[in-house]
């Protein structure tokens, strides 16, 4: 039993500190519940190293209370109908948008995403996703009747919510990645337990405030920030019908094994080492105006970033030079500085790991191209200058492992066929692109590269289309109308005639 089941909720202050903190504790069953003492984390701003505050964390013993709150709301939420669910989604979107600037700034301070990007990825994008699923919910048909093949009568297909969903989201795009889970789950009629990363504890408090202000029925959405122990308890909990997870492949494998072992459902959006194939006939101006930005999104802390650039001989050195010019033009700076193109990476440990990967590649023979960091950066920030590693072998660790930093490998291919082989010679299969003037060739390559999504002369995951990976990049799909189906089960009723 959770310690929180033994006592009523403790009212907490409505005040907001200079650090943007709202109420402390977890948001469970429509109430703010004070956490036990001693389980906390100190947060620091990766741009400056300055303290952001100390936050309390939920733990494994809180899972029962979270699941119980969600279960209490399940029948009412499923039964209120798609139109009412759409109204709640629209109310969440409205309050999310109203709190947008505050939320965007908090995420920038928590993990270093430049403020302009944070507005797009933590406010405008999620709000659009929620409104999209509100629209789909209004037209959701839950009963379908068919003519049976084997008897006289009717077959009725009843689509019912799966039940309680645990949405476990990472720190790199926290609220966009939540919205792509929360929107379809709520539209389908499933209550949700949100488990954000510890790094996003401050913005998670604000998100819970948004839910409270939007009038979400108690228990329909619950928010608890915690670590691996809380996540593991939710994944293993018999009351959780589905786990929707975005994160590393290693953790995803563990979640898949646990959830599969108890015959529950999961959606696992995992890592990537996406390849961009650039052919000799590519439009160089177009390619170099679009592709490098896709390689360094969010300082490379993006699962679908095009971090392997595989170019054929006639254009290879021109691509190297184009990347050189791109990284020289990028301003690295604090996340809240509107002129910063690239912010810091999320932690000192991440910075050291990324620099170690670069050093290892150079030792193996890579040609390193990178600008110097500006001299006026805060000395305690976690900055990494964007790196181009040319002449990389596709078998080197830097080309096979997800570095999750501003590091791009340029790889030479003999021809288009060799480029496809190199692109597929990797454990991951999340995304990819091809750059060529020949659309027939591009479509053929798109069909042969092993990736869940693929772009021709560009790339942007569209909110109205399914998105996810293959191989070590995960299972299941998010986004589009297909995502709602992932939170429904199909039950059948046979009606026999006289």
What would you say this structure looks like, in words?
The chain has helices spanning 63-79, 82-98, 100-111, 115-138, 174-188, 201-213, 228-236, 249-261, 284-295, 313-329, 348-364, 397-400, 416-424, 439-448, 482-485; strands spanning 26-28, 31-33, 40-44, 51-56, 143-146, 153-161, 165-168, 192-195, 221-223, 242-246, 265-269, 274-278, 306-311, 367-369, 387-390, 407-412, 428-429, 432-435, 455-456, 470-471, 474-475, 488-496. The protein folds into two domains: 3-270 and 475-492, 3-Layer(aba) Sandwich (Aldehyde Dehydrogenase, Chain A, domain 1), CATH 3.40.605.10; 274-462, Aldehyde Dehydrogenase, Chain A, domain 2, CATH 3.40.309.10. 39% of the residues lie in helices and 19% in strands. The protein is globular. The strands form six sheets. The protein has a seven-stranded mixed beta sheet, sandwiched between helices. A six-stranded mixed beta sheet has the order 9-8-7-10-11-21, sandwiched between helices. A three-stranded antiparallel beta sheet has the order 5-6-22, with no helix packed on it. It starts with 25 loop residues before the first strand and ends with a strand. It has 15 helices and 22 strands.
* Biggest beta sheet attributes: 7 strands, mixed
CATH classification class of the largest domain: Alpha Beta
CATH superfamily of the largest domain: Aldehyde Dehydrogenase, Chain A, domain 1
Secondary structure class reads: alpha/beta
Unreliable residue runs: 1-21
Return the average pLDDT rounded to an integer.
Answer: 94
């Amino acid at each position: 039993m959770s310690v929180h089941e033994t006592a009523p909720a403790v009212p907490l202050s409505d005040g907001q500190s200079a650090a943007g903190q709202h109420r402390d504790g977890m948001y469970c069953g429509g109430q703010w519940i004070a956490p036990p003492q001693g389980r906390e984390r100190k947060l620091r701003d990766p741009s400056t190293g300055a303290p952001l505050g100390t936050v309390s964390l939920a733990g494994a013993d809180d899972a029962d209370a979270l699941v119980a709150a969600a279960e209490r709301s399940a029948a009412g939420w499923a039964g209120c109908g798609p139109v009412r669910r759409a109204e709640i989604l629209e109310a969440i979107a409205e309050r999310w948008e109203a709190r947008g600037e505050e939320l965007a700034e908090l995420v920038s301070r928590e993990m270093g995403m430049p403020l302009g990007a944070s507005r797009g990825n933590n406010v405008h994008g999620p709000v659009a996703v929620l409104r999209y699923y509100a629209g789909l919910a209004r037209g959701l048909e839950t009963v379908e009747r068919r003519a049976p093949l084997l008897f006289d009568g009717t077959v009725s297909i009843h689509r019912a919510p799966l039940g309680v969903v645990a949405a476990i989201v990472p720190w790199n795009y926290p609220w966009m990645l939540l919205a792509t889970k929360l929107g379809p789950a709520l539209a389908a009629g499933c209550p949700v337990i949100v488990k954000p990363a510890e790094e996003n504890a401050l913005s998670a408090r604000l998100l819970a405030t948004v839910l409270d202000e939007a009038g979400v029925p108690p228990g329909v959405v619950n928010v608890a920030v915690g670590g691996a122990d809380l996540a593991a308890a939710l994944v293993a909990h018999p009351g959780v019908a589905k786990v929707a997870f975005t994160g590393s492949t290693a953790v995803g494998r563990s979640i898949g094994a646990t959830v599969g072992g108890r015959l529950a459902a999961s959606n696992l959006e995992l890592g990537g080492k996406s390849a961009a194939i650039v052919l000799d006939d590519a439009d160089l101006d177009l390619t170099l105006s679009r592709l490098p930005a896709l390689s360094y999104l969010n300082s490379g802390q993006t699962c679908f970033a095009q971090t392997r650039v595989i170019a054929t001989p006639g254009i290879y050195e021109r691509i190297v030079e184009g990347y050189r010019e791109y990284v020289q033009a990028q301003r690295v700076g604090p996340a809240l500085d509107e002129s910063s193109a690239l912010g810091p990476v999320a932690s000192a440990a991440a910075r050291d790991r990324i620099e170690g990967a670069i050093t290892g590649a150079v030792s193996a023979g890579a040609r390193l191209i990178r600008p110097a960091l500006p001299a006026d950066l805060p000395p305690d920030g976690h900055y990494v200058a964007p790196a181009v590693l040319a002449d990389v072998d596709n078998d080197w660790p830097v080309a096979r492992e997800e570095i999750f930093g501003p590091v791009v490998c340029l790889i030479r291919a003999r021809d288009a066929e060799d480029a496809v082989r190199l692109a597929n010679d990797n454990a991951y299969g999340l995304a990819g692109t091809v750059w060529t003037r020949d659309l027939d060739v591009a479509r053929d390559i798109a069909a042969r590269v092993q990736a869940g999504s693929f772009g021709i002369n560009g790339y942007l995951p569209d909110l109205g289309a399914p998105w996810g990976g293959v191989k070590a990049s995960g299972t299941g799909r998010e986004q589009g109308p297909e995502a709602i189906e992932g939170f429904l089960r199909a039950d059948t009723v046979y009606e026999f005639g006289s």
